[in-house]
Specification:
single chain; alpha/beta; six-stranded mixed beta sheet; five-stranded mixed beta sheet; 15 strands; 42% helix
Length: 398
Protein backbone atom coordinates (compact mmCIF):
# COMPACT_ATOMS: atom_id res chain seq x y z
CA UNK A 1 0.00 0.00 0.00
CA UNK A 2 2.77 2.46 0.92
CA UNK A 3 4.73 1.71 -2.26
CA UNK A 4 1.66 2.21 -4.43
CA UNK A 5 0.85 5.47 -2.64
CA UNK A 6 4.39 6.73 -3.14
CA UNK A 7 4.33 5.70 -6.81
CA UNK A 8 1.00 7.48 -7.31
CA UNK A 9 2.39 10.71 -5.90
CA UNK A 10 5.06 10.74 -8.61
CA UNK A 11 2.39 10.26 -11.25
CA UNK A 12 0.17 13.06 -9.93
CA UNK A 13 0.10 16.00 -12.30
CA UNK A 14 1.67 19.21 -11.07
CA UNK A 15 -0.98 21.06 -13.04
CA UNK A 16 -4.41 19.82 -14.06
CA UNK A 17 -7.11 21.16 -16.33
CA UNK A 18 -10.64 21.21 -14.90
CA UNK A 19 -13.86 22.03 -16.73
CA UNK A 20 -16.46 23.76 -14.54
CA UNK A 21 -20.14 24.11 -15.36
CA UNK A 22 -22.46 26.47 -13.51
CA UNK A 23 -26.07 25.35 -14.03
CA UNK A 24 -28.53 27.89 -12.71
CA UNK A 25 -32.13 28.89 -13.28
CA UNK A 26 -31.36 31.82 -15.57
CA UNK A 27 -28.24 30.77 -17.41
CA UNK A 28 -25.55 28.12 -17.81
CA UNK A 29 -21.91 29.06 -17.45
CA UNK A 30 -18.74 27.20 -18.24
CA UNK A 31 -15.05 27.65 -17.53
CA UNK A 32 -11.73 26.00 -18.11
CA UNK A 33 -9.43 26.39 -15.13
CA UNK A 34 -5.89 25.28 -14.42
CA UNK A 35 -5.09 24.07 -10.90
CA UNK A 36 -1.45 24.42 -9.93
CA UNK A 37 -0.32 21.87 -7.33
CA UNK A 38 3.33 22.95 -7.21
CA UNK A 39 2.95 25.36 -4.29
CA UNK A 40 2.18 24.65 -0.65
CA UNK A 41 -1.47 25.41 -1.34
CA UNK A 42 -3.10 24.49 -4.70
CA UNK A 43 -4.31 27.50 -6.66
CA UNK A 44 -6.66 27.91 -9.61
CA UNK A 45 -6.34 30.10 -12.67
CA UNK A 46 -9.36 30.81 -14.84
CA UNK A 47 -8.31 30.40 -18.47
CA UNK A 48 -11.64 30.97 -20.18
CA UNK A 49 -15.29 31.53 -19.31
CA UNK A 50 -18.49 31.50 -21.33
CA UNK A 51 -22.19 31.79 -20.52
CA UNK A 52 -25.47 31.10 -22.32
CA UNK A 53 -28.84 32.40 -21.18
CA UNK A 54 -31.76 30.04 -20.59
CA UNK A 55 -34.73 31.19 -22.67
CA UNK A 56 -37.08 33.14 -20.44
CA UNK A 57 -40.70 31.95 -20.60
CA UNK A 58 -43.52 34.30 -19.69
CA UNK A 59 -45.37 31.31 -18.20
CA UNK A 60 -42.91 28.82 -16.77
CA UNK A 61 -43.28 25.17 -17.82
CA UNK A 62 -40.76 22.82 -16.19
CA UNK A 63 -40.31 20.46 -19.14
CA UNK A 64 -39.63 23.38 -21.48
CA UNK A 65 -37.44 24.93 -18.80
CA UNK A 66 -35.34 21.74 -18.56
CA UNK A 67 -35.04 21.49 -22.35
CA UNK A 68 -33.95 25.12 -22.57
CA UNK A 69 -31.34 24.58 -19.85
CA UNK A 70 -29.93 21.58 -21.72
CA UNK A 71 -29.73 23.58 -24.96
CA UNK A 72 -27.79 26.29 -23.13
CA UNK A 73 -25.50 23.64 -21.63
CA UNK A 74 -24.86 22.19 -25.10
CA UNK A 75 -24.00 25.67 -26.35
CA UNK A 76 -21.54 26.19 -23.51
CA UNK A 77 -19.83 22.80 -23.92
CA UNK A 78 -19.43 23.41 -27.65
CA UNK A 79 -17.94 26.83 -27.01
CA UNK A 80 -15.42 25.42 -24.53
CA UNK A 81 -14.50 22.57 -26.88
CA UNK A 82 -13.83 25.02 -29.73
CA UNK A 83 -11.52 27.03 -27.49
CA UNK A 84 -9.17 23.99 -27.46
CA UNK A 85 -7.42 24.75 -24.17
CA UNK A 86 -6.73 21.10 -23.50
CA UNK A 87 -8.75 18.04 -22.59
CA UNK A 88 -10.03 18.37 -19.00
CA UNK A 89 -8.64 15.94 -16.45
CA UNK A 90 -11.94 16.17 -14.61
CA UNK A 91 -15.32 17.91 -14.77
CA UNK A 92 -17.14 19.58 -11.88
CA UNK A 93 -20.78 20.72 -12.16
CA UNK A 94 -22.35 23.13 -9.69
CA UNK A 95 -26.15 23.12 -9.50
CA UNK A 96 -28.37 25.94 -8.32
CA UNK A 97 -32.08 25.62 -7.56
CA UNK A 98 -34.30 24.08 -8.84
CA UNK A 99 -31.85 21.39 -9.96
CA UNK A 100 -31.07 20.09 -6.46
CA UNK A 101 -32.40 19.83 -2.91
CA UNK A 102 -30.36 19.82 0.30
CA UNK A 103 -30.55 19.10 4.00
CA UNK A 104 -28.30 19.50 7.04
CA UNK A 105 -28.07 16.35 9.15
CA UNK A 106 -26.71 16.05 12.71
CA UNK A 107 -25.17 12.76 13.88
CA UNK A 108 -24.43 12.08 17.55
CA UNK A 109 -22.46 9.29 19.23
CA UNK A 110 -21.70 8.89 22.94
CA UNK A 111 -20.52 6.42 25.58
CA UNK A 112 -20.42 6.32 29.36
CA UNK A 113 -16.63 6.04 29.27
CA UNK A 114 -13.90 7.70 27.23
CA UNK A 115 -13.22 6.31 23.75
CA UNK A 116 -10.61 7.09 21.10
CA UNK A 117 -12.02 8.74 17.99
CA UNK A 118 -10.91 6.83 14.90
CA UNK A 119 -11.44 7.27 11.19
CA UNK A 120 -13.48 4.06 11.26
CA UNK A 121 -15.90 5.52 13.84
CA UNK A 122 -16.28 8.73 11.80
CA UNK A 123 -16.81 6.87 8.52
CA UNK A 124 -19.33 4.47 10.06
CA UNK A 125 -21.34 7.35 11.53
CA UNK A 126 -21.40 9.17 8.19
CA UNK A 127 -22.32 6.05 6.22
CA UNK A 128 -25.14 5.25 8.64
CA UNK A 129 -26.54 8.76 8.36
CA UNK A 130 -26.33 8.74 4.56
CA UNK A 131 -28.34 5.50 4.49
CA UNK A 132 -30.92 7.07 6.82
CA UNK A 133 -31.10 10.08 4.51
CA UNK A 134 -31.66 7.82 1.52
CA UNK A 135 -34.49 6.00 3.29
CA UNK A 136 -36.14 9.19 4.58
CA UNK A 137 -35.71 11.58 1.67
CA UNK A 138 -35.00 9.75 -1.58
CA UNK A 139 -38.10 7.58 -1.25
CA UNK A 140 -40.19 10.77 -1.44
CA UNK A 141 -38.95 11.24 -5.01
CA UNK A 142 -39.67 7.61 -5.86
CA UNK A 143 -43.19 8.02 -4.55
CA UNK A 144 -43.65 10.85 -7.03
CA UNK A 145 -42.42 8.66 -9.88
CA UNK A 146 -38.98 10.28 -9.93
CA UNK A 147 -35.69 8.80 -8.78
CA UNK A 148 -33.05 10.94 -7.10
CA UNK A 149 -29.31 10.62 -6.48
CA UNK A 150 -27.17 11.99 -3.68
CA UNK A 151 -24.63 14.34 -5.26
CA UNK A 152 -22.67 15.45 -2.20
CA UNK A 153 -22.32 14.72 1.50
CA UNK A 154 -19.91 17.05 3.24
CA UNK A 155 -18.80 16.86 6.86
CA UNK A 156 -18.79 20.55 7.81
CA UNK A 157 -18.35 20.36 11.57
CA UNK A 158 -17.07 17.93 14.22
CA UNK A 159 -17.57 18.51 17.95
CA UNK A 160 -16.12 16.47 20.83
CA UNK A 161 -17.62 16.82 24.31
CA UNK A 162 -19.45 19.89 23.04
CA UNK A 163 -16.38 21.63 21.61
CA UNK A 164 -15.64 22.06 17.92
CA UNK A 165 -12.42 20.46 16.66
CA UNK A 166 -10.67 20.34 13.29
CA UNK A 167 -8.72 17.13 14.03
CA UNK A 168 -10.68 14.66 16.17
CA UNK A 169 -8.87 11.45 15.13
CA UNK A 170 -6.74 9.96 17.91
CA UNK A 171 -8.32 12.06 20.68
CA UNK A 172 -10.38 10.89 23.66
CA UNK A 173 -14.04 11.76 23.93
CA UNK A 174 -17.28 10.74 25.59
CA UNK A 175 -19.54 12.39 23.04
CA UNK A 176 -19.12 13.08 19.34
CA UNK A 177 -21.26 15.17 17.00
CA UNK A 178 -20.99 15.44 13.22
CA UNK A 179 -22.83 17.96 11.08
CA UNK A 180 -23.33 16.80 7.48
CA UNK A 181 -24.58 18.77 4.50
CA UNK A 182 -26.30 16.45 2.01
CA UNK A 183 -27.61 17.34 -1.46
CA UNK A 184 -29.59 15.34 -3.98
CA UNK A 185 -30.86 15.82 -7.52
CA UNK A 186 -33.39 14.06 -9.79
CA UNK A 187 -31.73 11.22 -11.67
CA UNK A 188 -33.21 12.23 -15.04
CA UNK A 189 -31.72 15.73 -14.72
CA UNK A 190 -28.28 14.39 -13.78
CA UNK A 191 -28.23 11.87 -16.63
CA UNK A 192 -29.25 14.52 -19.16
CA UNK A 193 -26.45 16.82 -17.94
CA UNK A 194 -23.91 14.00 -18.03
CA UNK A 195 -24.93 13.01 -21.54
CA UNK A 196 -24.60 16.59 -22.81
CA UNK A 197 -21.12 17.04 -21.33
CA UNK A 198 -19.84 13.63 -22.38
CA UNK A 199 -20.89 14.36 -25.95
CA UNK A 200 -17.99 16.83 -26.07
CA UNK A 201 -15.54 15.61 -23.45
CA UNK A 202 -14.11 12.14 -22.91
CA UNK A 203 -14.53 11.92 -19.18
CA UNK A 204 -15.51 8.88 -17.12
CA UNK A 205 -17.10 10.61 -14.15
CA UNK A 206 -18.60 14.03 -13.48
CA UNK A 207 -18.64 15.45 -9.97
CA UNK A 208 -21.73 17.37 -8.84
CA UNK A 209 -22.05 19.92 -6.05
CA UNK A 210 -24.63 22.48 -4.98
CA UNK A 211 -23.82 26.13 -5.59
CA UNK A 212 -25.10 27.10 -2.13
CA UNK A 213 -22.45 24.87 -0.52
CA UNK A 214 -19.76 26.30 -2.80
CA UNK A 215 -20.67 29.86 -1.81
CA UNK A 216 -20.79 28.79 1.85
CA UNK A 217 -17.24 27.44 2.04
CA UNK A 218 -15.82 30.27 -0.08
CA UNK A 219 -17.50 32.96 2.06
CA UNK A 220 -16.56 31.17 5.29
CA UNK A 221 -12.89 30.94 4.34
CA UNK A 222 -12.67 34.42 2.77
CA UNK A 223 -14.22 36.22 5.74
CA UNK A 224 -12.48 34.56 8.69
CA UNK A 225 -14.17 35.41 11.95
CA UNK A 226 -17.64 35.56 10.41
CA UNK A 227 -19.23 32.55 12.06
CA UNK A 228 -22.82 33.72 11.55
CA UNK A 229 -24.17 35.03 8.26
CA UNK A 230 -26.85 34.67 5.62
CA UNK A 231 -26.29 33.34 2.11
CA UNK A 232 -28.49 34.70 -0.65
CA UNK A 233 -28.28 33.37 -4.20
CA UNK A 234 -30.63 35.25 -6.54
CA UNK A 235 -30.93 33.30 -9.78
CA UNK A 236 -33.06 33.81 -12.85
CA UNK A 237 -36.16 32.06 -11.56
CA UNK A 238 -35.39 31.24 -7.93
CA UNK A 239 -33.86 32.83 -4.85
CA UNK A 240 -32.04 30.55 -2.39
CA UNK A 241 -31.70 31.60 1.25
CA UNK A 242 -29.47 29.85 3.79
CA UNK A 243 -28.66 30.74 7.38
CA UNK A 244 -25.19 29.95 8.74
CA UNK A 245 -24.64 29.85 12.48
CA UNK A 246 -21.41 28.81 14.15
CA UNK A 247 -20.00 28.02 10.68
CA UNK A 248 -22.78 25.55 9.91
CA UNK A 249 -25.59 25.77 7.34
CA UNK A 250 -28.44 25.16 9.74
CA UNK A 251 -31.30 25.66 7.29
CA UNK A 252 -31.97 26.65 3.69
CA UNK A 253 -34.96 27.11 1.43
CA UNK A 254 -36.01 28.74 -1.84
CA UNK A 255 -38.77 30.90 -3.23
CA UNK A 256 -39.70 31.27 -6.93
CA UNK A 257 -38.83 34.95 -7.49
CA UNK A 258 -35.56 35.99 -9.06
CA UNK A 259 -34.19 38.30 -11.72
CA UNK A 260 -36.66 37.05 -14.35
CA UNK A 261 -39.52 38.10 -12.08
CA UNK A 262 -38.51 41.74 -12.69
CA UNK A 263 -38.11 41.21 -16.44
CA UNK A 264 -41.59 39.72 -16.70
CA UNK A 265 -43.08 42.70 -14.85
CA UNK A 266 -41.51 45.16 -17.31
CA UNK A 267 -42.49 42.99 -20.29
CA UNK A 268 -46.13 42.96 -19.11
CA UNK A 269 -46.10 46.70 -18.40
CA UNK A 270 -44.91 47.59 -21.91
CA UNK A 271 -46.39 44.58 -23.74
CA UNK A 272 -42.99 43.60 -25.12
CA UNK A 273 -40.99 40.37 -25.17
CA UNK A 274 -38.70 39.52 -22.22
CA UNK A 275 -35.71 39.97 -24.55
CA UNK A 276 -36.76 43.57 -25.16
CA UNK A 277 -37.63 44.18 -21.51
CA UNK A 278 -34.19 43.31 -20.10
CA UNK A 279 -32.26 46.24 -21.67
CA UNK A 280 -34.95 48.63 -20.44
CA UNK A 281 -34.70 47.20 -16.92
CA UNK A 282 -30.93 47.77 -16.97
CA UNK A 283 -31.43 51.37 -18.12
CA UNK A 284 -33.93 51.97 -15.33
CA UNK A 285 -31.61 50.58 -12.64
CA UNK A 286 -28.78 52.78 -13.92
CA UNK A 287 -31.17 55.81 -14.11
CA UNK A 288 -30.64 56.30 -17.84
CA UNK A 289 -34.27 56.54 -18.93
CA UNK A 290 -36.30 59.69 -19.45
CA UNK A 291 -38.02 60.98 -16.31
CA UNK A 292 -41.53 60.12 -17.51
CA UNK A 293 -40.47 56.55 -18.31
CA UNK A 294 -38.62 56.28 -14.98
CA UNK A 295 -41.82 57.21 -13.18
CA UNK A 296 -43.78 54.65 -15.19
CA UNK A 297 -41.32 51.93 -14.26
CA UNK A 298 -41.10 52.99 -10.61
CA UNK A 299 -44.68 52.09 -9.75
CA UNK A 300 -44.41 48.61 -11.26
CA UNK A 301 -41.03 47.87 -9.75
CA UNK A 302 -42.06 49.19 -6.33
CA UNK A 303 -44.85 46.61 -6.28
CA UNK A 304 -42.32 43.98 -7.38
CA UNK A 305 -39.98 45.10 -4.59
CA UNK A 306 -42.70 44.65 -1.96
CA UNK A 307 -43.61 41.22 -3.31
CA UNK A 308 -40.00 40.02 -3.38
CA UNK A 309 -39.31 41.41 0.11
CA UNK A 310 -42.42 39.69 1.47
CA UNK A 311 -41.18 36.33 0.18
CA UNK A 312 -37.70 37.09 1.54
CA UNK A 313 -39.11 38.00 4.95
CA UNK A 314 -41.15 34.79 5.04
CA UNK A 315 -38.06 32.79 4.11
CA UNK A 316 -36.07 34.38 6.93
CA UNK A 317 -38.82 33.60 9.41
CA UNK A 318 -38.86 30.00 8.21
CA UNK A 319 -35.09 29.40 8.37
CA UNK A 320 -34.51 31.14 11.70
CA UNK A 321 -35.31 29.20 14.87
CA UNK A 322 -33.61 31.74 17.18
CA UNK A 323 -34.65 35.23 18.26
CA UNK A 324 -32.22 36.98 15.92
CA UNK A 325 -30.69 36.73 12.48
CA UNK A 326 -27.12 37.50 11.42
CA UNK A 327 -26.90 40.97 9.89
CA UNK A 328 -24.22 40.10 7.31
CA UNK A 329 -25.55 38.83 3.98
CA UNK A 330 -23.23 37.32 1.36
CA UNK A 331 -25.11 37.64 -1.93
CA UNK A 332 -24.60 36.23 -5.41
CA UNK A 333 -26.64 37.81 -8.22
CA UNK A 334 -26.13 39.04 -11.76
CA UNK A 335 -24.26 42.34 -11.67
CA UNK A 336 -26.86 44.20 -13.75
CA UNK A 337 -29.53 43.82 -11.04
CA UNK A 338 -27.28 43.59 -7.95
CA UNK A 339 -27.90 47.19 -6.85
CA UNK A 340 -31.70 46.80 -7.11
CA UNK A 341 -31.78 43.75 -4.84
CA UNK A 342 -29.15 45.14 -2.47
CA UNK A 343 -31.05 48.42 -2.08
CA UNK A 344 -34.30 46.53 -1.56
CA UNK A 345 -32.82 44.55 1.33
CA UNK A 346 -31.41 47.67 2.97
CA UNK A 347 -34.72 49.56 2.92
CA UNK A 348 -35.44 50.77 6.45
CA UNK A 349 -39.16 50.13 6.23
CA UNK A 350 -38.36 46.46 5.70
CA UNK A 351 -35.59 46.03 8.26
CA UNK A 352 -37.75 47.18 11.17
CA UNK A 353 -39.79 44.00 10.75
CA UNK A 354 -36.88 41.55 10.63
CA UNK A 355 -35.34 39.67 13.51
CA UNK A 356 -31.90 41.22 13.12
CA UNK A 357 -30.81 43.85 15.63
CA UNK A 358 -28.97 45.98 13.04
CA UNK A 359 -29.46 46.91 9.41
CA UNK A 360 -28.37 44.25 6.96
CA UNK A 361 -24.86 44.57 5.60
CA UNK A 362 -24.99 43.19 2.04
CA UNK A 363 -21.70 41.94 0.56
CA UNK A 364 -21.80 40.80 -3.06
CA UNK A 365 -19.44 37.86 -3.61
CA UNK A 366 -17.55 39.05 -6.65
CA UNK A 367 -14.00 39.88 -7.70
CA UNK A 368 -13.55 42.65 -5.14
CA UNK A 369 -13.61 40.46 -2.00
CA UNK A 370 -12.50 37.20 -3.65
CA UNK A 371 -10.01 38.21 -6.35
CA UNK A 372 -6.98 37.32 -4.23
CA UNK A 373 -8.03 33.66 -4.12
CA UNK A 374 -8.00 33.00 -7.88
CA UNK A 375 -5.90 34.06 -10.85
CA UNK A 376 -7.11 35.05 -14.32
CA UNK A 377 -5.49 34.44 -17.69
CA UNK A 378 -5.27 37.53 -19.94
CA UNK A 379 -8.69 38.21 -21.45
CA UNK A 380 -10.60 35.87 -19.13
CA UNK A 381 -13.91 37.42 -18.07
CA UNK A 382 -14.67 37.95 -14.38
CA UNK A 383 -17.77 35.82 -13.84
CA UNK A 384 -18.58 35.84 -10.12
CA UNK A 385 -20.35 32.47 -10.13
CA UNK A 386 -17.56 30.67 -12.00
CA UNK A 387 -14.97 32.41 -9.84
CA UNK A 388 -16.59 31.06 -6.67
CA UNK A 389 -16.76 27.61 -8.22
CA UNK A 390 -13.11 27.72 -9.33
CA UNK A 391 -12.04 28.52 -5.77
CA UNK A 392 -14.36 25.83 -4.44
CA UNK A 393 -13.08 23.20 -6.88
CA UNK A 394 -9.62 23.59 -5.39
CA UNK A 395 -10.89 23.37 -1.83
CA UNK A 396 -12.98 20.26 -2.46
CA UNK A 397 -10.21 18.48 -4.36
CA UNK A 398 -7.78 19.30 -1.59
Amino acid sequence: MYIMSLFSSFLKKKKEIVAIFDIGSGSVGGAIIEIDHTGKVPRSKILYTTRAQIVLQMNLNFEQFLSSMLRSLAEVTEDIEKKALGAPDRVHCFLASPWYGSQTRVVTYSKNTDFIVTEKILNNLMEKEIKAFEQDELKKYTGLGTHARIIEHQNIKVSMNGYMTASPVGKKARSLELVLFVSMSPENVLRAIEKSIKNKFSISKIRFSSFIFASFIVARDAFIGQKNFLLLDIGGEITDVAIVKNEVIVESLSFPLGKNFLIRRIASLLNVTPANALPLLKLYISSQLEETVMLKFSGTLQKARIEWLTHFQNALAAVSSDLYLPDNIFMTVDSDVASWFSDSIKKEEYNQYTLTERQFNVIVLEESPLGDDVDFAPGAERDQFLMIEAICAVKLSN
